[in-house]
């Protein structure tokens, strides 16, 4: 049985959402963050050497890393859904945005979050550079969501699942005002209208306000 080990307010929400979109059988085990440190509890960290979310188990398989987990589940259980074939005209866009989610957007938000905790001067050159890089990343997403309904084109794919956390729940950890990104707000309204997304968030983080604007 595929088991999704979900740490509250974490990137593992992607995996719950993926399973709901695919409508495959899975077991959901929820873990609460430590109230003081806001880190994963010991029983979650014991699941995998990296100790970070997401983590799945599937028989003897124990797998971490969002992108790897998403690709594993789609390859094993997806039957060709939520991905694009290499001969699809939008294949390159799909690949780019699938990897942009964690390779650029999430990574930049994480760096800025850490820098903000250091209480650096507002004009610190490193801080300024990271803020500019984050603005550029959001600008790219806003431009893409102006020209296409979903990241890979007109078809919803796992690239949208990958980026969803960074545009929403990650802003609990690193706030970002989406007022300057009207197309992202419209895109998130389309995401919010997906029944699988709503089911996933209710199951994984019941009661959590969704940062969709």
What's the layout of helices and strands?
Elements: E1 2-7, H1 13-22, E2 27-31, H2 42-45, E3 55-58, E4 61-64, H3 66-77, H4 91-117, H5 125-147, H6 158-167, H7 182-192, H8 195-204
Parallel strand pairs: 1-2
Antiparallel strand pairs: 1-3, 3-4
Helix pairs in contact: 1-3, 1-6, 1-8, 4-5, 4-6, 5-7
Can you give a write-up of this model?
There is one protein chain. This protein has eight helices and four strands; from the N terminus they run E-H-E-H-E-E-H-H-H-H-H-H. The protein is α+β, with helices and mostly antiparallel strands and 213 residues long. The mean pLDDT is 96. It has two domains: 2-82 and 198-204, Glutaredoxin; 91-194, Glutathione S-transferase Yfyf (Class Pi), Chain A, domain 2 (Up-down Bundle), CATH 1.20.1050.10. Strands 2-1-3-4 form a four-stranded mixed beta sheet, covered by helices on one side.
